Amino acid sequence: xxxxxxxxxxxxxxxxxxxxRELRRLIVREPRLRWPVPAGLAALVEGRRVLATGRRxxxxxxxxxxxxxxxxxxxxxxxxHVHPDEEPRKHDHVDWVFDQAVLRxxxxxxxxxxxxxxxxxxxxxxxxxxxxxGIEPFDDRFDGGWLFRHTRRRSAPIKQAxxxxxxxxxxxxxxxxxxxxxxxxxxRTAAGRISAARYEKLAAAVRATLDDAIRAGGSSLRDYVxxxxxxxxxxxxxxxxxxxGQPCRVCETPxxxxxxxxxxxxxxxxxxx
Length: 273
Prior knowledge:
Elements: H1 4-18, E1 25-28, H2 41-45, E2 52-56, E3 59-64, E4 67-72, E5 78-82, E6 92-98, E7 101-106, E8 113-118, H3 128-131, H4 144-149, H5 158-164, H6 173-183, H7 196-215, E9 256-260, E10 263-267
Antiparallel strand pairs: 1-6, 2-3, 3-4, 4-8, 5-7, 6-7, 9-10
């Protein structure tokens, strides 16, 4: 699933194309996504100018004067530039048509979304899909103290606590494994039993891991590509993710794999206690 680094990479890729530009047409070929594309959405946004792009967790935002488009890439989606004359492929569900540029949403599993939040309903952060999200990892308030305070009385393993998204957003499966390795924390450790000092290391590791992933264009494990059609390459240099049986890059102990909440977790048994 495209996570924070992939969505932020997409946002940065489309921003020069759409910010300050008038949306000429919105073409909806398939409205039956995870949540139906609102009827009449094209009439709401066509001829309107995109003021800015943004991101909240894994949701991509396009701001207009009268509201926001909220876009989710689903489990295997991508939003990329295509030539105006390029014929749509199977699973190309929505086009944003600007002068000399087209953005196309490709979503084979239809788990993505294109939704509208009207400005009259309040700030976009109040939308039901965004309102309960945790803090952004690059927010100045996010640090070890934040993690420590918000994990008291939590008995769930720290890997699962990171994935829930109510404490901090964007630390998806790959990046949770990588962050815990960098911080030297075993993924099965109960979130409520980790010290404040170790949480300081984890907060720093989360920021560093996500920053490295954004610089690498995210991770391309299946269908994800960036706005220019390029693959991400963070997974190539992953320290533990998908490296079961291979030597740890630090101590050479074989990396282990376990399943938590039906998701694969990778860790070094020596470096992560």
